Input
Amino acid sequence: MIKISKVEPSVSDRIKGHLNAITTAFVQALKPDRITVEYPRERRRYPDNFRGILIFDKDRCVSCFRCAQICPANAIKMEFYDNYYPSVDYAKCIFCHFCVESCPTGALRSSKVHDVAFKSLDDMYIHTNSMMSIPEIVREEEIEVEYEIEDGKLKLRREVVEKLEVDYERRRLILKKELSSLEVPPPIPVRKRAYCKDPESCLGCRICASVCPRNAIKYDRKKRIMSIDIEKCVGCGFCVRHCPMEILDLKVM
Amino acid sequence: MSLFEIFVSNMMNIPIIKPLIDYLMGVPVIRFIVALILWRPFFAIAIAPGLGALGLYLLWIVYFERKLTARVQWRVGPLEVCRPIRGLIQALADGIRFFFQEVIVHREAHRPYYVQLPILAFIPVLIPIMFIPAGNVVGIKSDYAIQLIVAFLALISITIVVIGWASNSRFAFVGSVREAFMYFAYEVPFVIAVISMIFLYGSGNPYVAVEKQTIPGVFLNPIAFIVYLIAMLMATSRLPFEIPEADQEIAFGPFVEYSGILFGLVMTLAYEKLYIMALLFTILFLGGWSGPYIWIIGDLSHVLWLLLKTVVTISIIVIVRSIYARYRLDQALKLGWSSMLGLSLVGLVLGVGVGWFV
Amino acid sequence: MIDMEYEIKVPVEPPTELKSYFIPIPPEYVEETYRSDDFLVLVGPQHPGSGHMRLIVRVHGDIIREVIPDPGYVHRCVEKVAENRLYIQNIPLVERPSIMDSANLNLGYVRVIEEALDIEVPERARYIRTILAELCRIGTHLYDAAILSVFMGHTTGFMYAFGVRELICEALVRMTGARFTCSFIIPGGVRRNVGSDVLRFIYDMTFEMEKRLKTFEKIFIKNPTVIARLKDVGVLTKEEAIKFGVVGPFLRASGVEYDVRKVEPYEVYDELDWDIPVSDDGDGYSRFLVRVNEISQSINIIRQCVRRIPGGRVISDQICEDGRSIRGHFFDSLANIVLPAGEYTTLTECARGTVVFTIVSDGESNVPYRFRMVTPGWLYLRGFMESLKGERLADLQAIYGSFGYFPPEADR
Output
């Protein structure tokens, strides 16, 4: 236990306190310890695990509905395009990225873009067909700032951002290349497949076969069990959630 | 003597533009206007150190205070209004914005006083400007100039109290009471400090005061200097004595209900009081307008030295704002009535004593 | 001599706006106040110095007689909303009441689930959680110091404290991805592994933070005007503090040696070498000094954690086979957890005091049956109101700032 004693400033302590405060202010006025980043002409550099807006890759999605079910704010709803794909309502999204962590194939991923402005509330609902393409981003910064501690002192390292092909007519940088410096590298997908933990307890109710969106579970007449086609199964997990005996599970293959 | 001859007899002497003035004096109609502008009393009141300098000062001090405070606080300050000059015209932009805001006079306010007082409060601010000299450039020469300035400065506090009363609101009432208390606390030591300097120089004439300052007044009577400085902080409601206008405790005190251009006017009231007090401070303690005479600009060199010293004084007052927290009312009153009163009396004795020799 | 009692009838009518129905004081109280020559000041939500709550102050001249708080302005029904969400979806919900202290609230909630399900957390995850909790604790203390300084008119102190807090936010971004409200702690460990370059940055940053805190100390903490404002103001003696249920650093400033991290240690607090600051006089300045000392203790804890952190998994193997990151397995491992029937409670030491989490589960559903969260702000509100009696009206803001009362945390 550290005891903090009573502070009774004497006259000399008070004068010293005044002098200290005044000299500190004068020293700071001459040579300030500023850490200001003059946004938006300068921008902070973010690490790779930064939680920005979501980028969706349609080719990887297996329509497993996990992202919509886990979202704490109910911001993701699945809409039909040629299969069910997520649409995000940024008025509700809290950028917790539970959906990114739930996605088994890495279809949803993060980006370093966080300062988005919409013109109306309806614009904030990004529908599925807009999620398919990479969004348009306009940047105006020339300098990127990073906080660095060197020899025990905080330094702001300012680097000029390489401007790639500015389109002066529409005043924006060319999209795909620009976003590639802003987006986070995609994760390695985790390939999971369904398997039956306990075939003895199977009731034969065939609920798993009826819910599978890819028709990967079939009744094998010869062996008299339900068999799962590993090539067709994408690991969406519907059968796992619907089996009444809870004997199906997902396994990393 | 005709009016024109009166003007010409007391004209300013600025060698650098003398050829232009000589040419313009030959032109028939314009020579009256030029003679009027360069007539010394008119120049002192309207241009410098009078209304023109006051206007420029108001534009400058808002920007300077925000920038200096920001620099101490690890920030940058206003930057965006005109990017190439790093936000220099921020105060002008704010002033123009006030003209476009709606002035709301609420139902319970006492309408005549509420609307007219911020404008009438300028009278006790502008009258002292007539008496402040800068070399030969002066409005009215008088043997009692310093006493008159002090007397007029006292009227401003009364206007603030009445402004708070006219707003008819809970917080304005508390703010007015605090302003009245603070006014009594600083007025007595302030007046005694000025009187001690008058005793030191032997007269209330600013010309005598500056003439006798071979060493600046700071060293002749340092105690009166300290008392005057602290009284300046108390009088203009600057931190650490920002008690009547405490932003966080009573939501801006007497000025809580103002908006629009009236708000702009009441905000500048404290700054103008600071200007007058700083000019008086320069004359009494820093040697007034004395300094190396720059021949090329003639009479304007005195004006320049006076304004320069005032700017230095005001900068020190501004930086104190970022160092201290706000005192409580009873602590400030205790300071005013015990420590400052005692110090000012000691300063009075010192002033009388040194006055025998100087 | 006969003592005669004179009844003074003060012919004052209370103002009409105080009789309207939305102010929660009975009209008889208003009448009685004005008859006894007092004055009611409403320091309301729209006031530069009140935070988000309404305080009804009964003032006699300049001395406060009594303060009636009106909390609930920012009440968002966290406990009821939590009954409709999965256990794992409640993590961002319980973090939000006190956003700069989010790791401690997050930790308390997750520890309830771990206690119910009997999950063993790996060693590296416990160290990372401790670093997160201490970083958020420093952030909250700095935030409250800034609010205290702005309530007293000292804008420089405000800017300095938030400037130092910027370093904390940078450290949190590098660790978790978000500046505050990290949602990084999950049942079984943390969401992702933290690299050694990030730990190096945190270690170096503590030295830079101490240097800037020294400047802050010279201009704010040792400033004579600040000492004059905070000394002997809002005194709570030891008996009063215990009687009114004050928690946290405010209890320690009144002389009681109680800290949940020492009494019932969790995570790695019992393996590290640190101390709790205690003061004997319960005035505003000692409350502030206790928190300043806690900042240096937290920096000490962070440095020890960074030096001693072991390698290994960050997620328990009861939750997920992949021990380095929960990416891809989040839904399958954690979405449908069901707690066994019963009631589970934990105590955690937030920056401002003790926070109590309780979950009652019926054994079958994957949402909580009843969720109870008592934040420290709610617990010390009574002590805060009692300490205001007898002080001047201008001290209201100074005491408010020294307690660091944060209405969203108290109202939930």
Remarks:
- Confidence is low (pLDDT under 50) at residues 168-178 of chain A.
- The longest strand of chain A covers residues 143-150.
- Residues 143 and 160 of chain A are 4 Å apart (CA to CA).
